[in-house]
């Protein structure tokens, strides 16, 4: 395993044990709201601090972008930037709904180079290093081979935070539903993308995401032989938070269905 990936795994597992410990007593957690539906608990912060400590002890000169504490170090000066979501799926976690994960990615000169998505409930560890493939625990994973959308299971997420996107999203949703074998919306984008990499979903789309939700998952998919883009088929997904992903055949079909639903607002948000 690449040494930087080994450190990321150590950090993710440490966060995972904090999350597991806390999940036994959800009633005593202090929870606040960042916006009407973006909850944050003391567990998000504690997990994030633990991750940053492991990374900084190993690589004190690297910069960081983390969901709860923001930027640390100078991303322009450092060649390396870690992108951290300490707990992706906080709402699920707070409800004892067992679909949440730790997500850690490393950018090297702006290119995704290492990725970990760790599900502490199932103890599933998804990892990837650029050019070296993607793994679930010790097994190599690949995207599915399904070619027909009608046979495909598609994951998605609802843009419930920025409600201005909702109408355009629902139009896509309505168009995609009858063309697939089924749609799922478990509520952890990081895990959703890991599932595409593992071939559990054939495709995925969501809008209104942040880089920490998707950075690690995107590298997993690319290293598993899948494709990822923004809604227009371009590479701006990390910045825009609009994402389409899947095995190469299903990816193309999703983009085709989405294209007529691209509103001027979505196109502007994609820039
Ligand atoms: C959220 C999850 C969810 C997605 C939201 C994200 P958080 O992350 O990834 O699936 O639909 O947009 O913000 O806030 O639980 O880390
Ligand atoms: Ca959050
Ligand atoms: Ca997240
Ligand atoms: Ca989070």
Automatic annotation (TrEMBL):
EC number(s) on file: 3.1.3.25
Biological processes annotated in GO: inositol metabolic process; phosphatidylinositol phosphate biosynthetic process; signal transduction
Domain of life from the UniProt record: Bacteria
Sites where the protein binds Mg(2+): 67, 85, 87-88, 213
EC top class, as a word: hydrolase
Keyword terms: Hydrolase, Magnesium, Metal-binding
UniProt keyword Metal-binding, yes or no: yes
Listed PANTHER family: INOSITOL MONOPHOSPHATASE, INOSITOL-1-MONOPHOSPHATASE-RELATED
Family under the similarity heading: Belongs to the inositol monophosphatase superfamily.
Protein name: Inositol-1-monophosphatase
Record organism: Nitrosomonas communis
């Amino acid at each position: 395993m690449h040494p930087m990936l080994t450190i990321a795994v150590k950090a993710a597992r440490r966060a995972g044990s904090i999350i597991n410990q806390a999940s036994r007593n959800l009633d005593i957690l202090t929870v606040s709201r960042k916006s009407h539906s973006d909850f944050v608990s003391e567990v998000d912060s504690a997990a994030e601090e633990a991750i940053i400590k492991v990374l900084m002890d190993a690589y004190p000169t690297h910069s960081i972008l983390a969901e709860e504490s923001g930027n640390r170090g100078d991303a322009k000066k450092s060649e390396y930037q870690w992108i951290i979501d300490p707990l992706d799926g906080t709402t699920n976690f707070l409800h004892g709904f067992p679909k949440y994960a730790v997500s850690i990615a490393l950018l090297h000169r702006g290119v995704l180079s290492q990725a970990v998505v760790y599900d502490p409930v199932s103890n599933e560890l998804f990892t990837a290093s650029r050019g070296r493939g993607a793994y679930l625990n010790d097994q190599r994973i690949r995207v599915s081979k399904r070619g027909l959308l009608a046979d495909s299971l598609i994951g998605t997420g609802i843009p419930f935070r920025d409600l201005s996107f909702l109408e355009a999203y629902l139009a896509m949703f309505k168009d995609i539903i009858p063309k697939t074998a089924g749609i799922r919306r478990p509520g952890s984008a990081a895990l959703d993308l890991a599932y595409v990499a593992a071939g559990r979903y054939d495709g995925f789309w969501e809008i209104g995401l942040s880089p920490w939700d998707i950075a690690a998952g995107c590298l997993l998919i690319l290293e598993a032989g899948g494709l990822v883009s923004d809604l227009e088929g371009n590479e701006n997904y990390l910045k825009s938070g609009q994402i389409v992903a899947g095995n190469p055949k299903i990816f193309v079909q999703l983009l085709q269905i989405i294209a007529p639903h691209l509103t001027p607002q979505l196109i502007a948000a994609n820039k």
